[in-house]
Design brief:
Blueprint (H helix, E strand, L loop, with lengths): L1 H28 L4 H11 L1 E3 L20 E3 L10 E5 L5 E3 L13 E3 L4 E4 L13 E3 L4 E2 L2 H8 L19
Parallel strand pairs: 3-5, 4-6, 5-7, 6-8
Antiparallel strand pairs: 1-4, 2-3
Length: about 170
């Protein structure tokens, strides 16, 4: 009976070690976190003619080392969070993805001096922590000012000036 218990313990320890090692190996292979996936989705809507967002790598654990992405420091209880996105003057074209407002800690968003066009996503009105929004010198349509008016941000109207379709009220 003693050998049976001893054998069972050895098997249990081996199973436990395999499980722990699998977790650590798998953890490193999952790729970027959820915020990084939101940013990659946003990048998918953009044309980056000069490849300035080449550092945006889906294999990184977080997007915090990517160009234009700034994060709060993480700790044992919470991972780093994207707080600022500075993509101004990068000659980006395309449209803004609604996924940008899924970045729950995003406080600063600068997309100025690009060639972004189309509608601003309705979700821009629900960016709850957004404090600064710079969209000037883009080509968003007339719905832009309505959407921005819904956002909890007190943006300077000059920062919202549109190159093609007028200015924000």
């Amino acid at each position: 009976m003693g050998r049976l218990q001893s054998g069972f313990r050895i098997i249990a320890v081996h199973c436990f070690l395999v499980l722990v090692l699998s977790f650590f190996l798998l953890d490193g292979s999952l790729g970027v976190n959820l915020e990084g996936r939101y940013l990659l989705k946003m990048k998918g809507n953009l044309t980056d003619s000069f490849n300035l967002l080449s550092s945006w790598d889906s294999n990184d654990p977080t997007p915090c080392s990517w160009r234009g992405v700034y994060c709060s420091p993480g700790d044992h209880y919470s991972p780093p969070a994207v707080t600022s996105l500075n993509l101004g003057s990068l000659n980006l074209s395309g449209s803004l993805s609604p996924s940008v407002c899924k970045l729950g800690s995003l406080a600063f968003l600068d997309l100025s001096f690009n060639k972004l066009s189309g509608n601003l996503p309705a979700e821009i009105g629900s960016c709850s922590n957004l404090q600064s929004l710079k969209l000037n010198n883009n080509q968003f349509d007339g719905q832009a000012t309505h959407r921005i008016g819904q956002a909890p941000v007190s943006a300077d109207p000059e920062l919202l000036q549109q190159q093609v379709l007028g200015t924000a009220p």
